Amino acid sequence: MSDTSKPNSASSIPTMGRFPNLDRVRVPADLRNFSAEQLRQLAEELRSETVDAVSTTGGHLGASLGVVELTVAMHAVFNTPDDRIIWDVGHQAYPHKILTGRRERIRTLRQPEGLSGFTRRSESEYDPFGAAHSSTSISAGLGMAVAHHLRANDDPSYEERNVIAVIGDGSISAGMAYEAMNNAAVAGPGAKRLIVILNDNEMSIAPPVGSMSNYLSRLMTSRKFLSLRDLAGKLAKRLPASLERTAKRADELTRGLITGGTLFEELGFYYVGPVDGHDMNQLVPILRNLRDSDEGPVLLHVITEKGRGYKPAESAGDKYHAVSKFNVITGEQKKAPAGPPSYTSVMARELLRHAEGDERITAVTAAMPSGTGLDKFAAKYPGRFFDVGIAEQHAVTFAAGMASEGLRPFCAIYSTFLQRAYDQVVHDVDLQNLPVRFAIDRAGLVGADGATHAGSFDLNYLCCLPNMVVMAPSDEVELTHMTATACVHDSGPIAFRYPRGSGTGLDLPEKGEILEIGRGRIVREAARQPGTRSGVAILSLGTRLTESLKAADHLAAQGIAVTVADARFAKPVDTALIEKLAREHEVFITIEEGAAGGFSTQVIRHLAETALLDSVKFRPMALPDCYIDHNLPDVQYDEAGLNAPQIVATAQAALGAQAGQQTA
Ligand SMILES: Cc1ncc(C[n+]2csc(CCOP(=O)(O)OP(=O)(O)O)c2C)c(N)n1
Ligand SMILES: CC(=O)[C@@H](O)[C@H](O)COP(=O)(O)O
Ligand SMILES: [Mg+2]
């Protein structure tokens, strides 16, 4: 009986250098005639190559190291790219990229113009479905399997394909995964070719949470690893159709009696496992059996170790989930240059300060305790902190429930992940005017994670909601004020959005001030004769204020009078401030770190309603109508046209300045 508590361990990286097996693999077809021993060696080389590549780029290393053997085994057994492999989240797909024609570019991972850190349809035919947000793989895989079946029905020459969805134990906590499993067993014969591989490494970004995670742990520890003999017993039945059903039922009953049926079996999946996900000698034959059987939908439960085979990752608390560039020998990561505290930590600090004196304050995260800074809250107030797992929809409605009973819940979710909980924001929070506080991190462009993680749309999807107050700080001091304001705002929902990364370096106040709702501030005012209209007004929402001030300096040097104001509120907007800026300036620019249609729409609407839009040259600056690829945030904002030079150019063009005039 093998021990399922930990897969076989042989954790050392082979010496860097030549990779005799890996060098022979340009695409997966090249490894399909490898012997078992060659596949094992290939996996070792692939692991080394992954470590070496990520040491030069940074990225999601731990998850990738955990699936090296699985990746090799899947490409050895399945006929990719015709058979589809869908990696849930896609952050573990680096070894897959190396084996699927992208080895030469692997050191461009997450770099400007380089490979994406996730799977992406446009990057390779071996990436049949793009991802980065979790828990979509089973739904997408089921859709593909059904599509293949329907196409094969229509066209006898079309061969059915296997669809393999690889989903982690953290990602399988989300509702979508259950919606898909609930549908799979009744989605028709196409689902027979669906194989879900549950990659259970007992880790999310943080340690996994919840009853499902506990259940998987019990499943793992209460059963021995499946032997090939067990498997043969399960799958070798090739009975006449009339007997098949009875035999299958008998098999289910037997399994249930001996080991207890699994939740997955109850959902109509053929459960196989647990299996040592690092043992190539097990993985390959098991996958072959599943490929050739008609038992689907199947759930193969593999046990792996996050960070596997690279000692610094294995021994780190976070298993090197996401790393900066590092030294391969020591594992030491390159430190970011010391800078001001991050917006995340500023929000967390102020929230903690309020929580000390107010027991009604609670904090909710959806599997991102450290990313949202709520880990500090958890350490101090464990009874008022809730990590609900990857379950943004539940997080929002759970917070709504707390708010309905008089608590002051803070729901801290990244802008991009809050998209998933939109109906909950509308129907459960806003419509009932419940005072949930949304601390929306990673607003705007986020850098190396790229378009999937950009917080581009929250202003649009929040500003249109009747009861919602929406704020965006221009710097970390303002964020302190907004956190404080959210704490005491009990009359309805309130959201504040702030970017990834460091603040501007301002000294933080002892405590945040309570802001007047819907009141902005003038930061720099152009001198003018009373009653005259001239120059440029820039009304900035969020941290573009710094660029706005730079632009103002440049325009001022050209003799153009510029007023710069910080809107603070995207909803309700400061109507008095808007009217003043429109009346006193020839050009009125708004700027925001979000897609067009968010803050600027609120301003335009007021200008139109007051007929001021007819008399001022209004120029809204927002993210362009396209997705911005991964890059350094500053370069991304250049590409988006939201840096000082573009503000200057916008102002000059509106003023009718001559083309070619010098810009900032
Ligand atoms: C909807 C959504 N919420 C949160 C995240 C952030 N996130 C990325 S990976 C991850 C952990 C996933 O855990 P698991 O599926 O077990 O994969 P592992 O990293 O352990 O291989 C989280 C929370 C996300 N990508 N998508
Ligand atoms: C894969 C994923 O979704 C997360 O790991 C994400 O990359 C975290 O982003 P931050 O680094 O901004 O916390
Ligand atoms: Mg996991």
**Category from helices, strands and their pairing:** alpha/beta
Number of helices: 24
- Which small-molecule species are bound to the chains here? thiamine diphosphate, 1-deoxy-D-xylulose-5-phosphate, magnesium ion
Query: Span from first to last CA?
Result: 71 Å
The count of DSSP E runs of length 2 or more, i.e. the number of strands, is 17
* Averaged pLDDT: 92
Helix content: 25-40%
CATH topology of the largest domain: Rossmann fold
Question: What is the CATH class of the largest domain?
Answer: Alpha Beta
* CATH second-level architecture of the largest domain: 3-Layer(aba) Sandwich
Radius of gyration: 28 Å
Strand order of the largest sheet: 7-6-8-9-11-10-15
What is the count of distinct domains? 3
The CATH homology group name of the largest domain: Thiamin diphosphate (ThDP)-binding fold, Pyr/PP domains
Uncertain spans, ≥5 residues at pLDDT below 50?
1-12, 237-247, 249-260, 658-664
Which descriptor suits the 3D outline? Answer: elongated
- What proportion strand? 5-15%
Please outline the major beta sheet: 7 strands, mixed
What does this structure look like?
The chain has 664 residues and is of the alpha/beta class. It folds into 3 domains: 22-315, Rossmann fold (3-Layer(aba) Sandwich); 343-497, Thiamin diphosphate (ThDP)-binding fold, Pyr/PP domains (Rossmann fold); 521-655, Rossmann fold (3-Layer(aba) Sandwich), CATH 3.40.50. 39% of the residues lie in helices and 14% in strands. The protein is built from 24 helices and 17 strands. It has a 7-stranded mixed sheet with strand order 7-6-8-9-11-10-15, with helices on both faces. Helix 6 links the parallel strand 2 and strand 3 (194-200). Helix 1 crosses helix 4 (94-102). It is elongated, with a radius of gyration of 28 Å. It starts with 35 loop residues before the first helix and ends in a 9-residue tail after the last helix. Mean pLDDT is 92; it is low at 1-12, 237-247, 249-260 and 658-664. The chain binds thiamine diphosphate, 1-deoxy-D-xylulose-5-phosphate and magnesium ion.
